[in-house]
Task: structure prediction
Amino acid sequence: MKPVLSVLVGAILSCALIVPTAQAQRRDEKVGRVGNVDILRVWEGGRFDRCYGLVPGLGGGFRVFWNVGRNYIITMPAVGTGRTVQVAVTTPRGMVQTGGGLIGPRTVVELNNQQTQQIMSLRGRFEVDVQGTIFPYQLQGVTMEQVFVAVENCAHRNS
Result:
């Protein structure tokens, strides 16, 4: 009985040590604010991964990410159930129309250089169209360019 008990205790201890580290642990920390936009950094598995600006709004708001790979990514609430969705944002520098992917409850779009410049030109009220569903957002006391700079500064400080 004693050998079985010691094996059982060993197995339980092993599981207790493995389970917490086996999960991908994401932690978002608020590190600042510009206008009405919170700036957050993201830790994945105990390591810095990216920063983002969170424009408040429906479904978790509009988020602008810059990661350690120096890619700009925008996310907004997910609409539909397909693998790809159409996203459109009207900016002072023209319409950004692109495909996005669904990851959990979010629509995710990686921006190219031209799209980044267009999104950066946003000021005040703007709308994001995801598969025909309109999500309104408002920048208050800040331009999107200032949000991008704050997100980049956060990433530089933490990488």
